[in-house]
Amino acid sequence: MGNQRRGGNGSGKQGKHSDGRKAEAVEWLIISGRPAAQITRELGVDEYTLCNCLNMAKKRGQVENAEKPLTAEERAQPKELREENRRLKMEREIPEKAAVWFAKESL
Q: Phi then psi for 59, rounded to 5 degrees?
């Protein structure tokens, strides 16, 4: 009985999720930027377990990039991309509208 962990099932296993599954959940959490609760629902991992694994990975230095603040360039990029997208849509629409107009005029 001294070998059993508190709350364990007596099998000697640490938990029901493999280390690979936990690492996948931590990576998903970091990359996606979505809330831990949403990731845990999607992957079927306990939220406490996920947060614990994330903290352990931080201590080991495996997720050092996860908490670096965005640079000014990275913060400006979405705005620039939205502006470029708007401009490209307009450039695409002009020939389409012209074609429709010329087709009506030729009838």
A: -65, -35
Q: Treating both helix axes as pointing N-terminal to C-terminal, what angle do 36-43 and 47-59 enclose, rounded to 10 degrees?
A: 110
Contacts of 12 (CB under 8 A, 6+ apart): 3
Q: What is the residue whose two structure tokens read 């099998």?
A: 11
Q: Give per-residue pLDDT as tens, 10-60.
A: 444 455 667 777 777 788 777 777 788 888 888 888 888 888 888 888 888
pTM over 0.70? The answer is no
Place of tokens 């201590």: 59
Distance CA(80)–CA(73), nearest Å, equals 10
Hey, where are the domains in the chain? 15-68, 69-107
